[in-house]
Amino acid sequence: MDVVGKVAVVTGSGRGLGRAYAEALAAAGAAVVVNDVDGDAAKQVVDAIESAGGRATAVVAPVGETAVADQLVATAVAEFGRLDVMVTNAGILRDRVLWKMSDEEFDDVIRVHLRGTFTCARAAAQRMREQGEGGRLILVASPAGQRGNFGQTNYAAAKAGIAAMARTWAMELAKAGILVNAVVPVAATEMTRTIPAFAPAIEEAERTGAPLPRWLRRDEGLGTVEDVASLIVFLASDASAEVTGQAIGIGGDRLALWSHPAEKSVAYSQDGWTAEGIAASWSSGIGAEPESYGIPAPQGR
Ligand SMILES: NC(=O)c1ccc[n+]([C@@H]2O[C@H](COP(=O)([O-])OP(=O)(O)OC[C@H]3O[C@@H](n4cnc5c(N)ncnc54)[C@H](O)[C@@H]3O)[C@@H](O)[C@H]2O)c1
């Protein structure tokens, strides 16, 4: 599958998943703007893409503010003439339980993930609408945002917001032919390698050079960053021309379509509900089968 002639921005692509996305898009023929706050890492990715015969340029700047989003789009246009694909991947973690989380920890995560996605997608949508040839916004969500996760108030809120923005923008941008999807990735990176149930297997695979074990790849859906990059190439390509407004999970050997929130059970009471009426009907009515929440705990081996 190729994306020849397309121009992509990948935020946070100095390492981890973003680097794999940038390299895979370049290998499939796209010109790529590599963005990161780590200048050395961004330069290394550009060098790697160019040595493999691809086209790339670096923008070293923190996403979150409008000026940086505008700079990313302007660089794509100045260096490669247009913009077709925006991948909003940059991210940080500042995990802490609610009662200990600081304002700064909350704001930092919201700024990079939620505001970074908003500002970059907005700048990209403006340019793509001007070009008049459609485009792709590929947003990065997370199982934590889909389900909630212990210690991740800031991150889960940002990622749930990103999935909500994908659905909203899929509606708003449909007429312009701009497709918007959220990717829900799982991969062994700096961000996930310390999860206790996974760490020994990841370390073992790295030490021996062997692939990650089948239980991790299949049951837990945790694999390499390259596993996830295939989905980014698909969503950037003409092959995904019918795909928009979706949240698509990928990791290891698993590929999944996430459901969107929808009413699961409904009850009616003529002239409205009193608190007593809700209490009386809860356990035999809409509360009979409450929803589960949280990412299922890894099983480990
Ligand atoms: N690894 C996983 O399993 C997983 C699961 C769900 C979601 N994600 C999401 O995927 C994305 C990438 O995750 P990863 O595991 O590769 O993380 P990572 O920490 O390995 O890489 C993140 C990159 O983003 C860069 N970055 C941080 N703040 C930035 C900013 N303001 N502007 C530009 N660059 C910035 C970092 O320097 C780093 O290079 C994140 O959005 C993350 O939340 C990852």
Automatic annotation (TrEMBL):
The keyword Oxidoreductase applies. It holds the Pfam family adh_short_C2. GO terms for molecular function: oxidoreductase activity. This is SDR family oxidoreductase. PANTHER family: DEHYDROGENASES, SHORT CHAIN, SCP2 DOMAIN-CONTAINING PROTEIN. Belongs to the short-chain dehydrogenases/reductases (SDR) family. SMART domains: PKS_KR. Keywords: Oxidoreductase. Residues 6-185 form the Ketoreductase domain. It comes from the Bacteria. InterPro entries: KR_dom, NAD(P)-bd_dom_sf, Peroxisomal_Beta-Oxidation, Sc_DH/Rdtase_CS, SDR_fam. It comes from Kribbella antibiotica. Gene3D superfamilies: NAD(P)-binding Rossmann-like Domain (3.40.50.720).
